[in-house]
Amino acid sequence: MNVYQIVTDRILTALSNGIVPWRKPWATHAPKNLVSGREYRGVNVLLLSAAHYECAYWLTFNQARNLGGTVKKGERGTPIVYWKVSEERNGKGEMEKSFLLRYFTVFNVNQCEGIEAPPAVFRPAFNPIEECERIVTSYVDRPRIDHGGNVACYIPSLDRVQLPTREAFHSPAEYYSTLFHELAHSTGAASRLSRKGITDASSFASHAYSFEELIAECASAFLCTEAGIAGSTIENSAAYIASWGKKLRSEPRWIVQASAQAAKAADLVLGMAASGSNEEQAAEAA
């Protein structure tokens, strides 16, 4: 039995035993308005978090000016939305509320001059794990890796991995586990293993996308095992995979099929395999 099969069996065992919900392994701070101190809600949290700024504080152009600062030349704001509520009487004389969706533009404090945000929470220095660093450097022709913001993702159109800062993670092991997950996604690019979940831009939230997530998390678990840090990350991996519970119940062979594709992804990152042809990989992923 090879190491990939051993890890897959551990994940399956954890799934059968029940796992606590997967958690985001880095510290997050809800975006807030610098002047009012209020946290943004709903879709605005997603809009602002996706802007990749480490500072949690935002303000409008006029708010920046009123504080004696200014928005840096050339900076572009981020639109956020709100509901304008009004009341008026209907034909029966009853008061009725109406809602109109509006938007306005805000800027992160880092986009401004002459304005200081509250001090950031102290975070201890990051201590790299030598074996994990070796694995990252073993990935020939790897994508660009950028740090900052509040999201972890692989962007196929740019062939770029985006992660929060290393210090934001709860532990170095969780940083590398997340990095390995995104690097595994990158192996699905057309120039590498050409997996539909990555090459097909319309596949988000589809069957192919769900399967791709399983591949990436299994590959991350394999790479964590190779690096010797699986002991502190395997339950998170199993819990993340369990979050696809409905899909797994309807497709019981998914985890086994995903682990086979994940082995190819892990091997590519480790420099142990070359990219296969598009046709070959597409057939094996079907």
Radius of gyration: 22 Å
How many strand segments? 9
Query: How many domains make up the coordinates?
Result: 2
Give helix % range: 40-55%
**Count of helical segments?**
11
Uncertain runs are: 17-23, 275-286
Tell me the β content: 15-25%
Shape: globular
Largest sheet: 4 strands, mixed
Query: How widely separated are the two ends?
Result: 25 Å
How would you write the strand order of the largest sheet?
A: 1-2-5-4
Protein structure class = alpha/beta
Q: How would you spell out the order of helices and strands?
A: HEHEHEEEEHEEEHHHHHHH
Average pLDDT level: 79
Walk me through what this model shows.
With 286 residues, the chain is α/β, with parallel strands linked by helices. The protein has two domains: 3-26 and 125-285, no CATH class; 32-113, no CATH class. Helix content is 41%, strand content 16%. It contains eleven helices and nine strands. Strands 1-2-5-4 form a four-stranded mixed beta sheet.
What's the structural blueprint in terms of helices and strands?
Elements: H1 3-17, E1 32-33, H2 43-49, E2 57-59, H3 61-66, E3 70-71, E4 78-89, E5 95-108, E6 112-113, H4 130-138, E7 144-147, E8 153-155, E9 160-163, H5 172-186, H6 196-199, H7 207-227, H8 234-242, H9 245-250, H10 254-269, H11 278-285
Parallel strand pairs: 1-2, 7-9
Antiparallel strand pairs: 2-5, 3-6, 4-5, 8-9
